Amino acid sequence: MVSVRALRKHYTVHKRPPGLRAAFRSLFRRVPTLVKAVDGISFEIAAGERVGFLGPNGAGKTTTLKVLSGLLYPSSGEVRVDGHVPQHREDVFLKKIMLVTGQKQQLLWDLPPSETFALNRAIYEVPEPEFRRRMAELTELLELGDLVNKPTRSLSLGERMKCELAAALVHGPKVLFLDEPTIGLDVSMQATIRSFIRRYNEETGATLLLTSHYMDDVAALCPRVIVIDKGTLSYDGGLDALVRRMRPEKRVVLRLDRPAPALALEGLGKVVSADAAQVVLQVRQDAVSLTVARALATLSVRDLTVEDPPLEEVMSELFAQNRVRAETAA
Amino acid sequence: MRKLGRYLRLLRVQVRSSVLLGLQYRADFLIDGAISLCWTTTALVPLFVVFHDRPVIAGWKFAEALVVVGWFTLLEAILEGAINPSLTAVVEHIRKGTLDFVLLKPADAQFLVSTARFEPWRSTNVLTALAIWTVAFVRLGRGPSPVGVLAALVLLGSATLLLYSLWILTVSAAFYVVKVDNLTNLFGSVFDAARWPVQIFRGVLRWVFTLVVPLALMTTYPAEALLGRLSPLALVGSVAGAGAFAWLSRRVWLGSLARYSSASS
To answer: Does B3 touch chain A (CB under 8 A)?
Structure first.
């Protein structure tokens, strides 16, 4: 469904050192600097897949999404979305895709969201019965209720995001690019948006490519992740495999009735954190059952869970590794 | 034909949104109407001053010059009500990166941005223009001929197209520079010269206002048509000139779109 080969997007920007003198000098002589926003990435996404597109700020995620949706011309490389070349921006292509961004909105600010829906219906030429059916579905799934008839400016951020999603799906896109769709939302609204996105994918078979800084979004939605850093691809594969590769250990979380003596803990595994009520241990996967048995035998354990290390830690370790590799290469 | 039908439907939806928006801000209607009327009245003062001691200037009598002012007032109404609201919004779209949403739509981006917003209550000056023409023709002691009215109607279309094309050219600059407020102010100041018959300007300015920024084609020629003294050649030239500007502005707009880099999130 999505095919990207050796995609490059380079910009030239004019850099200027700080200060008044430099500002005057730059009036006459500007120093061009090449920015490699995306520098030769390749990947394929099959129809119906949900893929997380991860990377630190400035990694090139949004740039790639904009190239895929036809907003930016690639400097070189080949990009296809459902057989179309995005930058040709043919109507038939634009009717198949949508880009949803958590930081920008398409809803008409002073009018109710229903007006944006009507406008999009006309633009995408959605037949009236289909439009009504889809709006009824979206209203139910996103619990829009009466929100669609209130002026957009009077809606909360979460309510606006729900309406943004509805506006983006009026034409039933086959490919959905989601750029930080849950940014700034509270935890319960994030969960609502996540479950909706998942359901949309399962019910329509739409392909999803999602960027997010909230690892909960990625863990809940994306069996596969593509990681880019400084414009180059550093990982493409299963999320579980990434976690196993970066952090082969598991976390054993012990909730205690009585504080445990430090000496008793040291023999169990690496202590990540410990207080009177809770101890978190890091242990090798093959040692989990032994550690659990010994903890239950020696400590006053009220409750016990075995977890993967937090995804945030896995990602920051991956980014740190990439930085070290880049510095060594330089 | 199907395409035309589709765009007419789109236009209807866009106009509907504008009307709904307008109804939310009913007070604007009265305030803007009153402000426009004040501006037009003060704009007539220089004309009174200039013609006070001289009955004829550059071949134009006071009443004839009033016909030019009438055209200027009418075009200002079109600019304020139909062109300005949408196109100033484009500049904001470009700056904030929300033009992305326009470009993602399967419809012509220039059409979408140009029809995004109409503010008909800003067009009260249409009535002022009709009043000015009435006064002018009463003072002249005659009415415009049917042929003159017909030619004037054709020129109203070409003048609107010219005005719109000049705005598209100005707005396209927003793709290259971040702030175009100065450019739009410059456009406003230059357009202000259209209240005078072009013959009043001498030398280079007259050429500039006829060929480069064709203010003559927008107000002087239509006024001459109403007065029944425009040559058929000037009529054809005006229409062709408007077509050429529309073509040029379309090329520049498309070229600018290709340069659009979108604001980062």
So the answer is: no
Which CATH superfamily groups domain A2-243?
P-loop containing nucleotide triphosphate hydrolases (3.40.50.300)
pLDDT in tens, chain B (265 residues): 778 888 888 898 888 888 888 777 667 667 777 777 777 777 777 777 777 777 778 788 888 999 999 999 899 888 888 888 888 888 888 878 888 889 999 999 999 999 988 887 777 788 888 989 999 999 988 888 899 899 999 999 999 999 999 889 888 888 877 666 677 777 778 888 888 888 888 888 777 877 777 888 888 999 999 998 888 998 999 999 999 999 999 999 998 887 776 654 4
Within chain A, all domains assigned CATH 3.40.50.300 are found at: 2-243
Cβ–Cβ gap A122/B9 under 8 Å = yes
HEC string for A253-264 = EEEECCCCCHHH
- Give how far Cα A134 sits from Cα of A97, A144, A167, A234, A288, Å: 16, 13, 11, 39, 49
- DSSP H or E run through A27: helix A20-28
The reply to whether residue B105 touches residue A94, judged by beta carbons under 8 angstroms, is yes
Interchain pair A115, B17: CB under 8 A: yes
SS (H, E, C) B158-172: HHHHHHHHHHHHHHH
Asked if A37 and A63 count as a contact pair (C-beta separation under 8 A), the reply is yes
Residue B47 lies in a domain: yes
CB A152 within 8 A of CB A107: yes
Assess if residue B264 is contained within a domain.
no
What tokens does A109 get? 């600010």
Interface test with A, best of B105, B112, B119 (most A CBs within 10 A): B105
- Report the alpha-carbon angle B246-B251-B253, nearest 5: 90
Q: Are residues A123 and B10, on separate chains, in Cβ contact within 8 Å?
A: yes
Q: Which residue has the tokens 């619990």?
A: A143
Cα of A182 to nearest chain B Cα, Å: 14
The number of folded domains in chain B is 1
For residue range A59-106, list pLDDT tens digits in order. 888 889 999 999 888 889 999 999 999 988 888 999 999 998 888 888
DSSP 8-state code for residue B177: S
Q: Cβ neighbours of residue A251 under 8 Å, at least 6 residues apart? A: A272, A280, A281, A282, A306, A307, A308, A309
How far out from the chain centre does Cα A223 lie?
A: 12
Residue ranges, CATH 3.30.70, chain A: 249-307
CATH no. for A249-307: 3.30.70
CB contact under 8 A, A104 and B106: no
For residue B265, being part of any structural domain is answered with no
Helix, strand counts (H, E) of chain A: 12, 13
Say how many C-beta atoms besides its own lie within 10 A of residue B230's C-beta: 21
Q: Is B258 on the interface with A (CB under 8 A)?
A: yes
The per-residue DSSP string of B53-120 comes to: H-SEETTEEHHHHHHHHHHHHHHHHHIIIIIHHHHHHHHHHHHHTTHHHHHTSSS-HHHHHHTS---G
Find the mean pLDDT for residues A18-37: 76
CB B87 within 8 A of CB B167: yes
- Measure the CA–CA gap between A322 and A310, rounded to whole angstroms: 19
Q: Taking a contact as any Cβ pair under 8 Å apart, which residues of chain B between 149 and 208 contact chain A?
A: none
Residue B155's domain comprises 2-259
